[in-house]
């Protein structure tokens, strides 16, 4: 694959969108190491620019971790907001800035975003509108799967396309997948063993969303 370990075990080199990308991993949290769905999603975005044209698009990444997906989306021309929990943000920011400075038309933004139910107050959907929401390996053993689905639903407006890549490993992952397909109109873009990439759009029409706000 495109992952090359450099002298220290915490630095890895990747190559996407015609650029070398140097990523620092940190061992103190889940989010600071690279997960397989990030690589699958980067390859998909790089190789399917007609299906998912990110040029000039507003993109939100949930659970951005090391920042590789945000970097690749930025290199492909998107205006990206990378989000994650507070303890992940400094490593995320350093990786994103190191690899996008002077290389991208739109400077990526990094923000703390904790998945939850209260997002209409902190991130009103009339203001926070995205063309794409990206998420890689955000489903694994944790207690916030319902909050994650609520967050995806919140940011997936009538004009948004959500792209979720995940290695489906556990029974709880299948339950989430089930709820995900019930919540959104979905199609499976990639299925490679346990690795799946879904594309999803809102079931709510613009009119129904306006009525409920
Ligand atoms: C398994 S890692 C995947 C990281 C990255 N997307 C990748 O594929 O390499 C899951 C990410 O979700 C973030 N995360 C976990 N729980 C979260 C929550 N409740 N709110 C926001 N982010 C969360 C973690 O900090 C971590 O960065």
Automatic annotation (TrEMBL):
GO terms for biological process: methylation. The keyword Transferase applies. Keywords: Methyltransferase, S-adenosyl-L-methionine, Transferase. Gene3D superfamilies: Vaccinia Virus protein VP39. InterPro entries: Methyltransf_16 (IPR019410), SAM-dependent_MTases_sf (IPR029063). GO terms for molecular function: methyltransferase activity. PANTHER family: HEPATOCELLULAR CARCINOMA-ASSOCIATED ANTIGEN (PTHR14614), PROTEIN-LYSINE METHYLTRANSFERASE METTL21C (PTHR14614:SF13). This is Si:ch73-244f7.3. It comes from Salarias fasciatus (Jewelled blenny).
């Amino acid at each position: 694959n495109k992952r090359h370990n450099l002298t220290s075990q915490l630095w890895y080199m990747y190559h996407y969108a015609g650029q070398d990308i140097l990523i620092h991993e940190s061992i103190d949290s889940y989010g600071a190491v690279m997960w397989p769905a990030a690589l699958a999603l980067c390859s998909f975005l790089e190789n399917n620019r007609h299906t998912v044209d990110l040029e000039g698009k507003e993109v939100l990444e949930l659970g951005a971790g090391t920042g590789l997906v945000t970097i690749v989306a930025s290199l492909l021309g998107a205006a990206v907001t990378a989000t994650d929990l507070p303890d992940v943000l400094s490593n995320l920011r350093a990786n994103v800035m190191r690899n996008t400075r002077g290389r991208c038309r739109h400077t990526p933004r990094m923000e703390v975003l904790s998945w939850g139910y209260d997002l209409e107050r902190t991130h009103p959907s009339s203001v926070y509108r995205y063309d794409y929401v990206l998420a890689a390996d955000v489903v694994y053993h944790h207690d916030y799967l319902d909050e994650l689905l609520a967050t995806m639903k919140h940011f997936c407006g009538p004009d948004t396309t959500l792209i979720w890549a995940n290695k489906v490993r556990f029974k709880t992952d299948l339950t989430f997948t089930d709820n995900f397909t019930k919540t959104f109109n979905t199609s499976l873009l990639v299925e490679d063993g346990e690795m799946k990439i879904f594309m999803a759009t809102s079931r709510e029409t613009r009119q129904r969303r306006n009525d409920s706000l």
